[in-house]
Amino acid sequence: MITLKGINIYLRALEPEDLEFIYTIENNESVWEVSNTQTPYSRFLIRQYLENAHQDIYEAKQLRLAICLTGSFETIGLIDLFDFDPKNNRAGVGIVISNETNRNSGIGSESLQLVINYAFHHLQLHQLYANIGNNNEISIALFTKFGFEKIGVKKDWNKINNQYEDEILYQLINKY
């Protein structure tokens, strides 16, 4: 699908071969605070998830795509549309790049741009939103770069390392 192809990366549907990558991401405790995960996932549960990944966004209410470098099938990250609400034409968006060497290299920007275009032009969504911890400066910079606006603060929303931290709600309205 040309819609999900950029210059340096492309986004693709999940494949059974992505099991180990997803297992590693979902069980990486440093990612848990941004994904609201509390417990590890088994390979069995991830395999079941992958078996149902063929459901379209209208059925599953979410879409998870693998981020790959152009010319490679290897997964380097994931980008999600979640809480898909076709009645109100909105969805949440989240992204994770697994290897720190691939961060701050434009991969996140290119991935987010592709998903915004897909959500607004193909899914005809009216808005996207992102929930970002107030200390996650890299994600805040990424989303605001694309016009996401801070619309609210959820006070003491997430407990991280025995301290409560605020979570900021960002929103992007489709003005096209």
3D structure, described in words:
The protein is of the alpha+beta class. Helices cover 30% and strands 35% of the residues. The chain has 6 helices and 7 strands. A hairpin with a 2-residue loop joins β6 and β7 (163-173). α1 (19-26) packs across α3. The protein is globular.
Brief write-up:
The protein is 30% helix and 35% strand.
Question: What spatial order of strands do you see in the largest sheet?
Answer: 1-2-3-4-5-7-6
Largest sheet: 7 strands, mixed
Q: Number of helical runs?
A: 6
Rounded average pLDDT? 89
Key terms:
176 residues, alpha+beta, 6 helices, globular
What is the secondary structure topology, with strand pairs?
Layout: E1 9-13, H1 19-26, H2 29-35, H3 43-51, H4 57-60, E2 63-69, E3 75-85, E4 90-97, H5 107-122, E5 127-133, H6 137-145, E6 149-160, E7 163-173
Parallel strand pairs: 4-5
Antiparallel strand pairs: 1-2, 2-3, 3-4, 5-7, 6-7
